[in-house]
Amino acid sequence: MVMTIMRISNIRVALVVLAASATGLAAQAVVKYQRPSQAILDVVTAARPPRASISPSRDTMLLMDAVPNPDIADLAQPMLRIAGIRIDPATNGLHASPRVRNLRIEKIADGSSVAVAVPATVTHITAPVWSPDGKHFAFTNVTAHGIQLWVGDVATAQVHQVPGVRLNAVMAAPVEWLPNSSGLLCKLVPAGRGEAPKENAVPLGPTVSESDGSAIPAATYEDLLKNPHDEDLFDYYATSQLATVNLATGAATTIGKPGIYAEDSISPDGHHVLVSRIHRPYSYLIPDSQFPRVIEIWAMSGHLERTLREQPMGGTRRRGMIEPGPRGYAWQPMQPATIMYEVALDGGDSNAKADFRDRVMMLTAPYQGDGVEYLKTERRFAGIEWGSSGDLAILRDNDRKLGTRAYFFAPSHPNDSMKLVWDRPPQDRYGDPGTPVAAFGRAAAGRGTGGGGGGRGGGGGGVFLEDGTSIYLQGAGASDTGDHPFLDRFDTQTLKAERLFQSPAGSYETVADLLTPNGSSFVISHESQTDPPNYYVTAPHASGLGRALTHYADPVPQVRRIHKQLIKYKRPSDGVELSTMVYFPPDYQPGTRYPAIVWAYPAEFGSAAAASQVTGSSDRFTVMTGYSELYLALDGYVILDNMTMPILSKDGDARDANDSYVEQLVEDATAGVNEAARLGFIDANRVGVAGHSYGAFMTANLMAHSNLFKAGNAQSGAYNRTLTPFGFQNEERTFWDDSPLYEKMSPFFYAQNIKAPILLIHGMADDNSGTFPIQSERMYAAIQGLGGTVRFVYLPYEAHGYLAQETIEHVIWEMDTWFNKYVKNAQPAGSAASSKR
């Protein structure tokens, strides 16, 4: 089977489709992109609710419309797949980068709104970034030949391009505001760089990989370096020049020499920059995030003040372990120029016995030595947030089995002021006390250098608002009736919370931001099953919605005829609470049994209590995006959406949950289908199943090990776990630790059992670790070779998540056509599902 396709002049005829049926007929074709029915297409192409961003000064709201799906011609532009990055060589940025349009500024005080005067020629802009003082915003514009820097003025709603600045957006964000809002720190394409390296037409020799005996248990990454020419290309496109750009004059002042800057961050006083600089040698087994790097502190002149660490090549630790050396370098946001970082005291192995897991260190100018120990944590360090008044901070530590704790402490003397405030079990949503509201003039979190820690650490978290002895907490308000977001005023002395706001039953409302430091006024987003999302100014304990800031109408009122209902039920063997959000088709007639589609994504849990918790809300406004399964409700299906599929462990830490993965999966699905049938919603003998990624893995397993479903659709899945031998999802055991487990969980090994028709869909350019396109290629070959009914749709230029408008429409058409043929028109019978194959 040849999987390579030619570039065709008419880009709408570039799909490879392979099909086989139980009759033995197999076919292969390149077909045109198809479009779903007009009823579905009207919703697919309808406008979406806009995005909103409130300024750090809390007086202005910036509104914008996302551009959800580019044309397939955009995806077909040249792309370099190297070092785990997808680079557009024409722009020196990321391939198919997101964009927004129709920027509007709204004054929160009076609701007045004005369109931002973006020139018509500026067509590919990114989401704007606020200056700390809220008076300006910056965005980039991607052109055919490079990435421009633009700045907007809130007072005038005018924007201008900063001349002579060509940004390099390959490594992290290319722009960051200086702390005093006087300008931006930018990554530029180096001046006089020259042309990109040319590949030798005749190879100089073979590509050789060699191991010296050091274990590198790497995941199955995509888009890796493959040869010396790839290394040269990575150097060329990833290398940038750091520079500050003055807001008033537009003048760019370079900092240091060009390099591959994975991360960079200005100190709070604006006098130093913390950089993480990647260097050779590179690896062909791991992406750029694990390449060796040096972490340094510079003066703003570019003068080296201190080398903090020479970090070696990563990828040598097993899943579940962390970097044993210093990690998480970041600026302490409430100090002028203090570095904080952490060091593992258990060798990075959380299974090792240790009184303390991590030591948090503090290093001040002139940055000599290792600094001083700031505090130690009994569990793995999970971050520090800092109060705006400087007299309070929140420390979090975490253990996979025991959960997450939060402590209040005084920053000036942490060890003798530590007070335990919250102690939550693992994966507990119901007990979430909320997240502190950010201080005025502050972003939610500053930038730092990961230093191998795999995330923010070293005390470089955000700054939260303090109001006397109170702070403000906002959370999802998860409960057994769904999410009910809230805002609390929390007294840090008495540890008592006062509920200022909570989303009422029948609607879904979230606090977008506080408008006053004392919490007397704030902005909420309101929506319901019938009301589209809109923003309002309200106050604590207010009746009604308050003053409207936006007035968006429903772009697809026909979707409001789709009603939804949360149903709950128990897993028979152990009583674990399960739930499903049921979407009913327009003009649903109670008492009539409809064909149904199950959409789900399994998850591992360490306890029945966590597995039983409800997620989501039935009161949300239904918005269909991408290639959502919900579109099929418009064609007469009941959608059993996000059916909970918990895979529960025996000992409480979820590490052994997969020992009974198949059995639990089948029982979960059987319980959900039977409950929907018991309620009279569906015909249990006309049910299909679908999922994406790990949900596709679930779909194939359910079809191999049960008789529940008439047909299935598996999108971008992995079906043979021996091809991901060093672990997958949350499974940390390797193939060599437990090869029978890998075989039992792999539907590829049970392809002979898949007799119901299955539709496989996969992007040709899948970029997700573990879901190489060969997974679907070989699964198709196995089912076809064993006489099953199978169709394989191979999507040109698409990654793990499908993006192009033509692709979106075609995938919906494929799902609808497949299920109409094999589910909707199957012979109705009975009302209870049989789970056994």
Summarize the structure.
It is built from nine helices and 48 strands. The chain is mainly β and 837 residues long.
What does this structure look like?
This protein has 837 residues and is mainly beta. The chain contains nine helices and 48 strands. The strands form ten sheets. Strands 2-1-48-47-46-45-41-43-40-39 form a ten-stranded mixed beta sheet, with helices on both faces. The N terminus is likely disordered.
Main traits of this protein?
837 residues, mainly beta, 48 strands, 33% strand
Shape: globular
Treating each run of at least 4 consecutive H or I residues as one helix, how many helices? 9
Q: State the helical fraction.
A: 10-25%
SSE class = mainly beta
Main beta sheet: 10 strands, mixed
Q: Please give the oligomerization state of what you see.
A: single chain
Runs in which pLDDT lies below 50 for 5 or more consecutive residues are 1-13, 443-458
Summarize model confidence as the mean pLDDT: 93
Give the strand tally: 48
Neighbour order of strands in the largest sheet: 2-1-48-47-46-45-41-43-40-39
Q: Give the termini distance in whole angstroms.
A: 31 Å
Share of β-strand residues: 25-35%
Radius of gyration: 27 Å
